[in-house]
Amino acid sequence: DSGVTQTPKHLITATGQRVTLRCSPRSGDLSVYWYQQSLDQGLQFLIQYYNGEERAKGNILERFSAQQFPDLHSELNLSSLELGDSALYFCASSLTSGNTIYFGEGSWLTVV
Amino acid sequence: DAKTTQPTSMDCAEGRAANLPCNHSTISGNEYVYWYRQIHSQGPQYIIHGLKNNETNEMASLIITEDRKSSTLILPHATLRDTAVYYCIVSSTGANNLFFGTGTRLTVIP
Asked: Which residues of B touch A58 (CB under 8 A)?
């Protein structure tokens, strides 16, 4: 158990819908990261937050957004969902940038 | 961050040591070598990391060559539960994310 908690574990939704994935980082960690893993692609970095502020952006689509709240939990919002958005979404956390990153167990999103 | 090269796949007999190589010939002085593994569709699991000295923990040992251009992850007594994709990642202090390549798919054979 890494200490990073993600909910929901599984989610099925229809195209065009919007979903929110939630992440609680390890106790004391200030940085939160989001990654996407599709069947045909590896782990793709989406975005990083540090203590509530966006720190780095990767291959995140404009339909996707994230935020980190004062209690340090984070949410990834996915809107106008397409079939190709079906993937595993991982949240990870670290104390700060450059420290060891620990991953949650992921949220399986299926868009039908 | 420096790029890494790993074999696509490896097999290892159960109970034997699994030695997973990684080349990172363009590594720079402030970059660490990290190893993670991902057991089928689970979250990537941190294994070990090092800068230039060899490191050992309860999961594995990391051997880094003196010139730091390559490293080997050693699982001393592989079990079936060690079957996973192993990722070697080079990352600098202060890096904002980890870049995952394709990794090595290790299969432990009974």
From this structure: 97
